[in-house]
Amino acid sequence: MQNKIVTLDEFIIRTEKENPKSTGSFSRLLRDIGIAAKIVNREVNKAGLVNILGVEGSTNTTGDAVQKLDIFANEKFIETLSYSGEVCGIASEENQDIIQVNNGSAVNGQYVVVMDPLDGSSNIDVNVSVGTIFGIYKRKSPVDGPCEMEDFLQKGTEMVAAGYVLYGTSTLLVYAAGQGVNGFTLDPSIGEFCLSHRNIKMPAAGNYYSVNQGYYLKFDLEMRRYIDHCSDLNYRLRYIGSMVSDIHRIMFQGGIFLYPNTRKYPKGKLRLLYECYPMAYIIEQAGGSALTCKLERIMDVEIHSLHQTSSIAMGSGDMVRDMKEFVERYGAVIQ
Length: 335
Ligand code: AHM
Ligand code: MG
What we know:
With 335 residues, the chain is an alpha+beta fold.
């Protein structure tokens, strides 16, 4: 007998029913994120066919080249979330400032969303996987008014949900909201995300490491020693340059992902709010861990500005612990 397909919408409704206090607002928000992901997926898939590729010519707030599909994804997510009525504000990697959603009932929206609408954008032109990353916070400012900066400058530990969408050989939406991590694969024939990976638990160890080895000489000594150790153990190096894809691999096969501080990015390159917190939230709920390369738990790092960056080392628990030992040992040597 064929297993019954559980769609994302159905899964969300079922989970909501298990929580008697639920108002349905959060469920509607997740459903809307699913809709935006489908729209972006459609465009990512046909990007090779239409003239939507190429560098737009502008740069984003941290100085990276912005490509057309980034802008499209950003607009679609903002549009969908703005009309949801559940979100009073959005912060995106592609926008300098917060977006206050002012239409209709949105001022009563309980949530703010932080997102990187299309991560790994250097991969778009060459048809390699990209992803969307999102995190959801409850607002701190009073309802009935516009959202404030304080709603966004909340630590990872305050996040109520996070997820990513991987536009790869198939399209997957993975999200966590405090009760484990679940993955849904888009079935293009019915246009629905269907539950495909229930209660994901990542392996405690693995033999993959993921780092831009080209920057090796720009890393601190302790990080270089740890990378040498990975190589000595014959770990397999895999680096797609799209964080979502690199993390997705180690979620299932075990491994460690590193984006250390470099001379060019002394505080790290990846954005705390849009990339590090949400991915750390998911990794932790899947049983892994996430630290800065200075060994602070990512979720506990204080946030002072929207586009703040951080170094990061995350993945299988045992491997992050090994990395920590190397940093403690060799970091102490050079002090
Ligand atoms: P983006 O948000 O501009 O796409 O940058 C983030 C991406 C990550 O997905 C990836 O891990 C990293 O940048 C790759 O950077 P680099 O090319 O320096 O290795
Ligand atoms: Mg990004």
